[in-house]
Amino acid sequence: MEQGSTGVTGLRRLPPWILAVSAAILVLYVAFAATLWRLGLFDVPESGPDARIFAAVFGLLGGLFASILTFVGVLLKHSIDTRTLEITRDSEARLKLETSIRAVELLATDDGRETAPSQQAGALFALANLGQLGLAVALLNELWPAGRVSTAAATGVIDQALRVGSIGTQIGASRVLQANADLLRHTDRGILLPDSLDGEWHTEWPGGVRNILISALIDAIRYRPRSEWSTDDLSTLSLNFDQIRKLDPDPVIAAAAVLVTNVLLELRFLEDTDAFLTADGQRIQVGALRSEIASLVPDARINAAYSDRDLVESLRTSWETGDAPPPKTRAGRSTAQSVAGTRSGFTGETDLGAAGDSTASS
Fold it and tell me: In the prediction, which pLDDT does 43 show?
C-alpha cells in the first residue's frame, strides 16, 4: 500500500516542466502523423514500391512512438524516485527528532528525579551524534556546573562541537568551556582539555571562537597551584602557547600567548639557559625562547585584550603566592529543572531543529 501511495503522490506532484515536455512531444508526434496521413502515406497499397514505403513509414512511426514512451517513462521514474527520496529524508529527520526527544528524557525521570551522571553523559553524546550539537551544548551548560556530568564527558561533548559544529555552536561550546575553566583541573596533573585543544591550535576556526578559547586556557591554568605543575608540564605549556603565538594570525590572540609564555618562562623551572624545552616533537632552547619572548612583551601588553591581560596578571599573582583562586560561584538550576525547561521549549520539529545543529551546516 505504501509503495502504491508513493507512486500516486509522485504522479500528482510531477514538476511542471515534465508535463510540458511530455505534452509537447505528444503534440509533435500527432502533428507528424497527421502530416504523413495528409500526404497519403497511410493509404495501404496492395504491392510494389508503395507497399515498401508504407511499411517503412509505419515502422518509423512505431519506433518514434516507442521512443516517446521510453522517454516519458524515464521522466516519470525520475520524478517518482526524487519524491521517494524526499519522503525517506523526511522520515529520517522525524526519526532523528524522536530519538533526540528520548535522549533528553534520559536526563531525568518522569517524577523529576535526576538520573545517574553516566546516563546523562550518554544522553548528551547521543544528542551530539544525532547532529543536535546546539542542544547538547545548551544542556551541558546546565548540567556540568551542577556536577551532573563529569569533566571528561563535558570536554568530549565540547570537542565534538568545536570540530564539526556550526560557528554558533562553536562559540557556545567555547563559552561553556570558559565559564567552567575551574572545573578543568585534572585530578592527577595538569588540566583536562578537549582533544582538539590538547597540544593543537586550529587557526581555521573563527577568530571569535579562538579569542574565547585562549582566555579559557589561561583561566584554566590559574586554578592549579604552581606546586602541582611538573617541569614537563610547564615545558609543554610553554611550547604550546608559543606555538599559538607563531600560528595565530590574530595579533590579539598572539599577544595573549606571548604574555602567558613570558609568565611561564619567568618561573625559571629550567635554570640552565642552554637546556631545551621538548614536547610533542618540538625542541627549543630555553635561553633563546626566553629572550625572544621578552622582546615581544612590550607590544603584547598593548595588543592583548584587557580581559586576557587581567587573567595573565592573576595567574602570575596566584603562582607567586602559591594559592589558586577559589572556585567560581554558581547558582545553576537542578538537572530536573533544566530538563523540564528543555521539554517545555521543544514542542515540535521546528523548535528542536532550531536548538539543534546539523553537522552539514558547518
Answer: 60
Query: What pLDDT does 36 receive?
Result: 63
| DSSP-derived secondary structure for 201-240 | --TTS-HHHHHHHHHHHHHHHHTS-GGG--HHHHHHHHHH
What region, left, alpha or beta, does residue 281 occupy, with left being phi > 0 and alpha being psi -120 to 50 degrees?
left
Q: 276-279 and 282-285 as β-strands: parallel, antiparallel, unpaired? A: antiparallel
Is 240 within 8 Å of 279 (Cβ atoms)? yes
Q: How far from 336 is each of 109, 114, 136, 198, CA to CA, in Å? A: 8, 6, 16, 33
Residue found under cell 619572548: 293
**Using an 8 Å Cβ cutoff, are 84 and 6 in contact?**
yes
Rounded to whole angstroms, the Cα distance separating 143 from 150 reads: 9
State the pLDDT at residue 333. Answer: 43
Give CA separation, 316 vs 107, 259, 323, 359, in Å: 40, 10, 11, 40
Helix (H, G, I), strand (E, B) or coil at 59: helix
CB 90 within 8 A of CB 28: no
The DSSP code sequence of 281-305 is TEEEEHHHHHHHHHHHHHHHHHHS-
pLDDT value for 125:
83
Nearest Cα neighbor of 352 from 175, 136, 144 is 136
In the chain, which stretches have pLDDT less than 70?
1-15, 17-19, 21-22, 29, 32-33, 36-58, 60-62, 65, 69, 90-115, 187, 273, 280, 330-362
pLDDT given for residue 49 in this prediction? 62
Host H or E run for residue 278:
strand 276-279
Q: How far apart are CA 17 and CA 19, in angstroms?
A: 5
228, three cell numbers: 602541582
Nearest Cα to 273, choosing from 259, 261, 284? 284
Q: 10 Å Cβ neighbour count for 158?
A: 30
Distance between start and end Cα atoms, the chain: 39
The whole-angstrom separation of Cα 296 and Cα 300 is: 6
- Report the pLDDT value the prediction gives residue 67, as an integer from 0 to 100: 73
